[in-house]
Design goal:
globular, 186 residues, 0% strand, 5 helices, mainly alpha
């Protein structure tokens, strides 16, 4: 067997193993977090399964988009998971602040109260941006500038792609596109 074929086989095996490792890391990290938190209200039937599947697809597509090797994936995903958890909490705080501000505007509250709520909302926005900057600086030891740029693009595009896929399913268009035919990641 020529050397080139063995190298190609090894590369193919590595590409298969990376998503599996990434998914296992994701699932392993999720179990302790679930145990440490108070039980949330039960999700609608099937929603939890869908969220897990979207999360698995995200890890797979992210691994692919960043072209992570096994060592990078092993080190990157725990940091990324922690960052996403922090950002989710910060986004919830921002949404609460915004709803409070919106209610104050509609309710005709005093200017002083509006100023306080605007400051609170802007501070929540700044915290999210600051944490994002810290995360991107903190992964410089793991990812090249090209990989970090690909991560920024991925984070912007992935929610849009998921929303489009959900909208398509709701309209009766079936599941996501087949690879090579309208796949936004190709």
């Amino acid at each position: 067997m020529p050397v080139g074929d063995r190298k190609g086989d090894r590369m193919a095996m590595r590409m298969v193993r990376i998503p599996v490792v990434a998914v296992l890391l994701l699932l392993a990290g999720a179990v302790p977090q679930v145990r440490a938190q108070a039980p949330p209200a039960p999700p609608p039937p099937g929603r939890e399964r869908i969220e897990r599947r979207v999360e698995m697809i995200k890890i797979y597509k992210l691994t692919e988009a960043l072209q992570l090797d096994e060592e990078q994936a092993t080190r990157f995903f725990p940091r990324y998971r922690a960052y996403e958890t922090e950002q989710r909490a910060a986004r919830e705080q921002l949404n609460r602040s915004f709803r409070e501000l919106e209610a104050a505007v509609k309710g005709g509250r005093e200017d002083g109260e509006l100023i306080r709520l605007m400051q609170q909302t802007r501070q929540a926005e700044r915290r999210m941006l600051t944490r994002r900057d810290e995360f991107f600086e903190g992964i410089s030891d793991l990812l090249s500038p090209r990989q970090k740029a690909a991560l920024m693009v991925f984070e912007r595009r992935f929610p849009q792609v998921v929303k489009q896929a959900i909208d398509k399913i709701r309209r009766g268009g079936g599941p996501s596109p087949r690879p090579g035919r309208g796949d936004p990641w190709r």
